[in-house]
Amino acid sequence: EGILKDGVNFSVTLPQQTTDIATFDLNKESSTVSITVVGASGDLAKKKIFPALFALYYEGCLPKHFTVFGYARSKMTDAELRTMVSKTLTCRIDKRENCDEKMDQFLERCFYHPGQYDSEENFLELDKKLKVHEGGRVANRLFYLSIPPNIFIDAVKCASTSASSANGWTRVIVEKPFGRDSESSAALTRSLKQYLDEDQIFRIDHYLGKELVENLSVLRFSNLIFEPLWSRQYIRNVQFIFAEDFGTEGRGGYFDNYGIIRDIMQNHLLQILALFAMETPVSLDAEDIRNEKVKVLRSMRPLRLDDVVTGQYKSHTRGGVKYPAYTDDKTVPNDSLTPTFAAAALFIDNARWDGVPFLMKAGKALHDRRAEIRVQFRHVPGNLYNKNFGTDLDLATNELVIRVQPDEAIYLKINNKVPGLGMRLDRSNLNLLYAARYSKEIPDAYERLLLDAIEGERRLFIRSDELDAAWSLFTPVLKQLEEKKIVPEYYPYGSRGPVGSHYLAARYNVRWG
Ligand code: NDP
Ligand code: BG6
């Protein structure tokens, strides 16, 4: 591509799919895509899936011929589904524009079929309706399982036996949780594979669809300056932080069965860690990337109980407002020990990362909402300025921060001379703030992932061996926490979380960013 001038866009073509889709033009007059949202009456469907589909439609990313079907047990007509969906559609992409017309066009393509998740007969009825809309074209079918995990298999069985495509592809997006531990996850995979091939299964981790997570590989592998520093030689520790400033809010029933380690760490944070720490893949092909992720996950030491701190939020009154405790949720038992906060120290036993602590921290009902990666570099050997000016060693080290959300940004903390006649240093940021640099709205993670599933791009979906490796790291410690009934450290709603996380970090000479 030659020399890239500042501010000039250039694009990279990702490798051709090795699947049927490569030769399959989705915009062909003779083909169509039917997207069925199973569990269409639910929270995720309303909040994320329908709005993402609309955004893709608005951007012209959906194929020429497509229909969206909602499927759930609730009784609803097509018109009622459209009313329900219309409430959560927004003109997110161009706020100045009135997108009513586009919304109406999109809603006209949305239909509903009520049915049980374990009824082949109901799925056959759906199949008949889909066929009518497909109008004899090559029919590609995508099922999005937006339902609780205990009914995944029933729905997959019925969809694959009664409603799979006769002449195109059939793909199924499966939402987390993918089991509760190694055994249940393996059982889920075995059951799914009774009805689907691995390449039909799209296990979604929506953090992989976030802009800055996707950018991680670009940052590492397309800039000369980062990759040489990306090892134990220069990096002192890496932190993966997830914080929410609200509690489990309406999802207590689900959450209490899983807890923060399964809800956030074993998937979202570990996936980011794998992309951060993997070796350079052979190519950008999905299998090459996933091979490298599996390798790095397999090089990790299973997490030890000593290296975990858990917490649970308790009620707190601030400014006359009483914020609830986790156990105030009516769907959560009063004596629940489920962690709503956890901090952990993980290690990768390979040549690149030997001895470097990878710290994770995830919590609900904390004082702020953010997701970020912090890379703390080592001290400058024999740093002249430390000697001469007594700079605090810890403050003087470089730090690279990748802020996934909110206010997406990448910034590098450097030491700089404060302008003036004297010699005083301060810490300044080289700051790439997305909102200042790019005018275009950042797509929601679900948009990217839905589009990838339609296009057959598997790079951002989890392969079963990755999932096995991820569970192997966390299953032993989860079992110990539960068998030993470890009591979480209570922290007030809206605080910075348990102080134990600071002791854990200090044990490895780390200060949380
Ligand atoms: P909901 O609890 O809202 O369930 C979705 C739909 O499934 C409901 O509308 C209901 O439809 C049906 N359903 C619910 N419980 C049962 C049951 N016990 N038996 C049979 N059907 C049931 O789930 P969400 O929409 O919140 O989540 C869907 C999936 O996505 C889950 O696997 C969840 O873990 C995952 N997820 C959700 C996120 C979120 O923010 N909500 C975030 C990340 C993942 P009906 O009664 O009409 O059949
Ligand atoms: C989900 C978790 O996977 O991610 C939720 O189940 C969490 O507990 C959510 O709130 C966070 O996603 P986001 O995109 O809002 O940061």
From TrEMBL:
Database matches in InterPro entries: G6P_DH, G6P_DH_AS, G6P_DH_C, G6P_DH_NAD-bd, NAD(P)-bd_dom_sf
Stretches assigned to the Glucose-6-phosphate dehydrogenase NAD-binding domain: 37-215
Catalytic activity from the UniProt record: D-glucose 6-phosphate + NADP(+) = 6-phospho-D-glucono-1,5-lactone + NADPH + H(+)
Superkingdom of origin: Eukaryota
Domain Glucose-6-phosphate dehydrogenase C-terminal: start-end pairs: 218-512
A GO cellular component annotation in the UniProt record: chloroplast stroma
PROSITE patterns: G6P_DEHYDROGENASE
Keyword entries, A-Z: Carbohydrate metabolism, Glucose metabolism, NADP, Oxidoreductase
Any GO BP annotation: pentose-phosphate shunt, oxidative branch
Pathway: Carbohydrate degradation; pentose phosphate pathway; D-ribulose 5-phosphate from D-glucose 6-phosphate (oxidative stage): step 1/3
Gene Ontology MF: a single term: NADP binding
Nucleus recorded as keyword: no
Enzyme Commission number(s) of this protein: 1.1.1.49
Family per record: Belongs to the glucose-6-phosphate dehydrogenase family.
Function, as annotated: Catalyzes the rate-limiting step of the oxidative pentose-phosphate pathway, which represents a route for the dissimilation of carbohydrates besides glycolysis. The main function of this enzyme is to provide reducing power (NADPH) and pentose phosphates for fatty acid and nucleic acid synthesis which are involved in membrane synthesis and cell division.
Name assigned to this protein: Glucose-6-phosphate 1-dehydrogenase
Lineage summary: Eukaryota, Viridiplantae, Streptophyta, Embryophyta, Tracheophyta
